[in-house]
Amino acid sequence: MQHGVKRGQGPSEQDIQLGIAKAKKLRTLQAQVLSESFFSMPEDEAFNASANLAAMNPDLYSVWNRRRQLLQRAKAAQENQQSEKADRNPDTDESKPAPTTSWQDMVVSELGMTQRLLPTNPKSYSLWSQRLWCIELLSDPKITAREFALLAKMLKADERNFHAWAYRLMLCRIAAKDCQEELDHATAMIEGNFSNFSAWHFRALYLQLLAAGRNNNGSDAHTSLSEFDLAKLADMAQEDSEMCHSAFYTDPFDQSSWIHHKWLLSACGPRQVTVGMHIRNTSDDSENWQVALSCSLPLVSLEGVKLFDTDGEEMEGSFNALAWCDGHSPTEQASLLKASARGSSHACMWRWSSNSTNGGDGRRPSAVLFSSGSIRAVGVGGSSFLAACSISVGGDSDLRALNSVHIVPCCNAQGESIEPILDIQAELQVCAELREVEPDCRWVMLQMVDLYEFEGMNKEAKDLLQELQRIDPARIGYYKDRESSLDMLAAFQARLAADVLSGNLDLQGFKRKTIPRQLLPFVAGADSVKLDNDKGDINGKTLVPSVWQQ
After folding, report:
1. Distances (CA, A) of 456 to 405, 474, 550
2. How far is residue 313's CA from residue 91's CA, in Å, rounded to a whole number?
3. Rounded to 5°, angle at Cα 258 from 252 and 263
4. Could you report the per-residue pLDDT of 531-549, keeping only the tens digit for each?
5. CB atoms within 10 A of CB 314
6. Radius of gyration of the chain, Cα coordinates, nearest whole angstrom
7. Based on the number of CB atoms within 10 Å of its own CB, is 424 exposed (0-12), middle (13-18) or buried (19 or more)?
8. Residue ranges of the alpha helices (H) in 378-441?
9. Model pTM above 0.70
10. Running DSSP on this structure, what letter comes out for residue 274?
11. pLDDT attached to residue 232
């Protein structure tokens, strides 16, 4: 007995011997197919050996790579033979006879092989990858069209098979399928079973494409949200909101519809970005000012941003991205490091580099000017542009360091302000009604926390987070982190009003070991920050981002 289930009888001696024989055969085939002498074998033997190995272990991607090489060699050999035949004199042609099987037929046969293996291995990455490779190699619209019939059968067997959904997305791009048709398909799948993460994701993707004015999916689907017709997106999102409400009332504990609803709240891109401007004088006997910016969201390039001194004269130079990205999530760190490696400017912290040979000319920076639609801010639900604005640092000119924090509104590519595509108060009302029915449903409460924060109702959000800690102790650390972020925001706003964001900040007592990225502009200009962190640093770097420690 284990986990309340009676143990069955163990395998018979015959089954054990069959398993041993199968393992020996698998090892023999694997050694043969993966050996250096594999391509020295006759073509038929190589195809047969690799086919046998693929049938026994379809998840072994190396065997599929070998088969791709065989097919590519056959394709190249036949194309070379045809080219040579075209160059020869027909009267004296003594070329080899044409192969009995064309490379196209060989690839079609490969599709047949993968199709026979898919029913018993419907979630094999290697199988789906091999099938997509064959489709792209053939580039035959008729064969591509037939793939949708296969997908219909696969999704009928398991409508939540994300491998099949991902394959369908790739086929849609190859075939330039109509976006409205695919949106209707996703809707029908959701109506059949609303607990379908892939169908919701598919629907969100095609909502974005249609709102961007694309009628087919023949190009890159990851369209910038700032290019959307927000009014059109809002009209279409209303249907999604109603679908989500229907799913909420049917099963409020199912997370798929809640996740889609969360996306709807952020789908228009960030409405505003918190920007910190930091300046300091690094010289005791003369004015040698340094300037930096920090942002609550990554910005893509600051080309065209202008810096002015206290006399209103423009200063020559540019803002350069700082590659250090502690304080971001692991996914964001990977993204920013890749962007840095490519030489791309995509970061939350920027420092001014002067073009003047006399960097310490005594001119004190005072204001930064953003022009509308030139700087893109990247958020969770997409991106939008910073609206035209000027941010400045005031204060006593005798101070060695000055910091200011500003809320910069966002706009779309047409200069229109970013507004939520859902009625926040109406959504709060729906969640409140659901909570009366299911008072301990964490998904309802989490959505209300997001909605409260969206409206700046931080006290109500904190109350719900404390209630979540009681009913869901397994995730108490996450709820405490969100609560402490709200406490830190309130403390920073008070410090900002008192102009004490410079120097050394003591933030011990907030029970945080890192600074949330959305609060970065409040601390990036400080000389040092103390947190509740026993380690003190990681790999010699402070855990608190600083624009001056680069």
Report:
1. 17, 27, 34
2. 83
3. 165
4. 775 444 433 334 455 666 6
5. 10
6. 30
7. middle
8. 424-437
9. yes
10. E
11. 77
